[in-house]
Amino acid sequence: MTEFERWLGEGFVQLNTVFEEAYFAAGQEYAPDLGQEEVLHEGAKRLPGLEREHSLEGDRYRLLGSVGLYLAACARHRVEDEEVLAPAWALATRLGTSLGVAPRYVFAHQSLYGFRTFTSLPDEQAFVRLNGLAVVAYERAAHALRLVATTGVDSPVVEHLLGEARRALEDVLSFNRVLAETVDPQRFYLGIRPYFRSHRVGTQVYRGVNAGDFAAVNEIDLLLGLCRADDPFYQRIVAEKLPYVPPDHQTRLHQAVLVEPLLHRFLREPLYAGLFLDVCRAHGAAYALHHGRLVKPFLEAQAGAEQDVTASGPPLSVVVAELAHLVDLRTARPRAGAFGAHEELRRLAELV
Questions:
Q1: Mean pLDDT calculated for residue range 239-263
Q2: Which residues contact 198 (CB under 8 A, 6 or more apart)?
Q3: Secondary structure element (H or E) that encloses residue 3, with its range
Q4: Could you tell me which residues are beta bridge partners of residue 188?
């Protein structure tokens, strides 16, 4: 482990924790004159030689996450000195270009490439851990459904695979429910969300972190047939996400749009259609709970009339409208003008 990364796990966390406690005590997202420049300078003095030291370990994507965490904290504490950050921006840009991803940290760097947090505060620890567990559960469900697609919907192993996918999606719902009951919405809004916001690397601003920036949830959407690859709305969702997922997930997203939806195959061969419908219901239920128990109380209710608050970049009203559209697609609710699966699922249910 490099000196820079040791600092990320120790001094960096200690500094951010002190500042977040001060902000929260003041009831503000930010308070000036607390010595936040220390984050900027302590990271900058450990940066020289980082790429050379890290090359021995060979994981350039993890290195991008390390630099990205530092840049996100500098942006959060409003200490983005161009001269001091120029080497970090250059390194992040070089890494992002070589990997074909956005040159900033994303949630994968916190949950799949080690367990990383900005602070030692319990709410952030729980937020990252529970979101990470939900990501792993989504991965399990996507893997099972990919095997259904390759095995064939009439194979005797499909019964087990669909059961595994349903159980994984029920775990997603469970983890999200625990998150909603554990993390304080105000703590999230004032002290976790600001690290997820859009920030610049060099001259370009990159959108903020989304805990859903992985291939699995979109693979599930497309494999089940709840979302369609020819839907302009959904095409835009996937295309916008591509630079913010790990490199191997980009390949999986490209492949997912080419696979025939399982829904169409079960309409032709409905032997295990009832189990397939259970998986669809579980996927919709998990996402509906996420929207109702996390998005609304953690963002909408905390923001009030303020709109420029999301990590993603667009105004809150735009983001929430898009998420509501996804809820309708994933729960197969009829929606005027939408490319939903409501009618096809109704026809399949009649065959069961």
A1: 96
A2: 205, 206, 207, 208, 311, 312, 313
A3: helix 3-9
A4: none
Which residue from 150, 4, 139 is spatially nearest to 64, judged by alpha carbons?
4
Tally Cβ neighbours within 10 Å of residue 121.
19
As a whole number, mean pLDDT of residues 223-230 equals 96
Beta bridge partners of 199: 206
What is the spatial distance between Cα 162 and Cα 151, in angstroms, rounded to a whole number? 12
State the Rg of the chain over Cα: 21
- All structural domains of the chain, each given as residue ranges with its CATH number in brackets, are 3-105 (1.20.58.600), 123-351 (1.20.58.480)
127-178 pLDDT tens trace: 999 999 999 999 999 999 999 999 999 999 999 999 999 999 999 999 999 9
Whole-Å CA distances, 55 to 60, 64, 87, 90, 237:
7, 12, 17, 16, 34
DSSP string of 221-242? HHHHTSS-TT-HHHHHHHHHHG
Alpha carbon of 246 to those of 23, 72, 181, 281: distances in Å? Answer: 32, 18, 29, 28
Rounded distance, CA 210 to CA 107, Å?
A: 7
pLDDT in tens, 164-200: 999 999 999 999 999 999 999 999 999 999 999 999 9
Work out the number of other CB atoms within 10 angstroms of the CB of residue 208.
21
Phi, psi of 271 (to 5 degrees): -55, -45
Per-residue model confidence (pLDDT) at position 300: 81
Q: Does position 308 have pLDDT exceeding 70, yes or no?
A: no
CA distance 58 to 245: 19
CA distance 204 to 199: 8
